[in-house]
């Protein structure tokens, strides 16, 4: 993370979003170009903006509507603190179907399924984890039939001592920085993604082998390691491995499976699996395995 101008990152992200916006959805923006800088990771900010915009588009897909993105500098407190700080406040709003009060109270829950997100999509729990690492805060306002507004606040101009404090929250990952996570179970995929992000990794996710293969081939230089489930629809983790290996690609692959006898391990090794994790495994075991690979 480094000090950067948030408005420039958002404008770049919105240019991409505008190009793929459906005809029945209008985009409005009010971006203050004179805001202070914040400590952030550009790629993760782009992920947040694009994924929240995608959520908004999904909510308005049937009837259309308006996607509104605002950025302004405000004075506010963070969490339970009474200290008032300068902050950048990013609002992403839609005029879609909205959410009821019960769902809204659990909207950051990593196990809550609001909608399926494929490809590089992040669940709100993962987005929340990223924002927390930047010392920010996210909240959601929504009513049935009245749309949804995501409000994200980042402190402005953090000093060096505070930068060190934030970085100390993240355990330094191994030499592997970017992981492609593949699992068809939404709750499992999202919870693992959030844990890995909190450990300092960048994580993209896919819900089946075919989606993962397309993502990997389009961005093969981005990924350092693949963690995949075995049994998935469309394309299994084993078939994904075969497709990657027959292209001569050497990326390490960790396979998660409930069937792991001696013969199974030999078979998986023969197709190019580097390590097998037998279910049920813990997050600590997965992270230890990833770090061992990077040693």
Structure description:
By secondary structure, the protein is an alpha/beta fold. The chain folds into 2 domains: 2-165, Heat Shock Protein 90 (2-Layer Sandwich); 171-294, 3-Layer(aba) Sandwich (Rossmann fold). Helices cover 37% and strands 25% of the residues. It has 10 helices and 12 strands. It has helices at residues 6-19, 42-59, 101-105, 124-133, 160-168, 186-198, 209-218, 237-245, 262-271, 283-294; strands at residues 2-4, 25-31, 38-40, 65-76, 85-94, 137-143, 147-155, 178-182, 202-206, 225-229, 253-257, 275-278. The strands form 3 sheets. Strands 2-4-5-7-6 form a 5-stranded mixed β-sheet, with helices on one face. The longest helix has 18 residues, at 42-59. The chain is elongated, with a radius of gyration of 20 Å. The two termini are 23 Å apart. The relative contact order is 0.11. Residues 109-121 and 159-175 have low confidence and may be disordered.
- DSSP strand count: 12
Number of domains: 2
Largest sheet report = 5 strands, mixed
Strand-pairing-aware structural class: alpha/beta
> What is the averaged pLDDT score?
80
Q: What would you call the shape?
A: elongated
Secondary structure: helix percent = 25-40%
The CATH architecture term of the largest domain is: 2-Layer Sandwich
Output the strand order for the largest sheet: 2-4-5-7-6
Beta fraction? 25-35%
| CATH superfamily caption of the largest domain | Histidine kinase-like ATPase, C-terminal domain
Radius of gyration: 20 Å
Q: Low-confidence parts lasting 5 or more residues at pLDDT below 50?
A: 109-121, 159-175
Series of secondary-structure elements, N-terminal to C-terminal: EHEEHEEHHEEHEHEHEHEHEH
CATH C-level category of the largest domain: Alpha Beta
What's the CATH topology name of the largest domain? Heat Shock Protein 90
In DSSP terms (H or I, runs of 4 or more residues), the helix count works out at 10
Distance between the termini: 23 Å
């Amino acid at each position: 993370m480094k000090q950067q101008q948030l408005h420039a990152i958002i404008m770049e992200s919105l240019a991409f979003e505008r190009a793929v916006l459906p005809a029945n959805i209008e985009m409005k923006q009010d971006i203050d170009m004179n805001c202070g800088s914040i400590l952030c990771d550009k790629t993760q900010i782009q992920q947040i903006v694009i994924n929240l915009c995608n959520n908004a588009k999904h909510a308005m897909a049937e009837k259309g509507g308006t996607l509104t993105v605002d950025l302004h500098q405000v004075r506010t407190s963070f969490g339970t603190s009474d200290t008032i700080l300068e902050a950048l406040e990013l609002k992403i709003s839609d005029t879609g179907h909205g959410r009821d009060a019960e769902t809204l109270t659990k909207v950051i829950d990593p196990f809550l399924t609001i909608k399926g997100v494929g490809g590089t999509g992040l669940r709100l729990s993962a987005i929340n984890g990223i924002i927390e690492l930047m010392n920010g805060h996210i909240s959601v306002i929504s009513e049935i039939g009245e749309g949804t507004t995501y409000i994200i606040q980042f402190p402005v101009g953090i000093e060096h001592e505070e930068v060190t404090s934030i970085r100390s929250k993240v355990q330094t990952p191994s030499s592997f920085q970017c992981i492609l996570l593949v699992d068809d179970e939404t709750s499992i995929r999202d919870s693992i993604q959030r844990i890995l992000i909190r450990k300092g990794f960048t994580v993209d996710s896919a819900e089946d082998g075919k989606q993962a293969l397309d993502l990997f081939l389009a961005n093969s230089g981005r990924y350092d390691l693949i963690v995949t489930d075995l049994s998935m629809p469309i394309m299994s983790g084993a078939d994904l491995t075969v497709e990657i290996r027959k292209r001569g690609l050497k990326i390490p692959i960790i396979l998660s499976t409930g069937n792991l006898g001696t013969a199974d391990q030999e078979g998986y090794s023969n197709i190019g699996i580097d390590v097998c994790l037998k279910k049920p495994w813990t997050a600590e075991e997965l992270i230890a395995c990833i770090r061992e690979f990077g040693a």
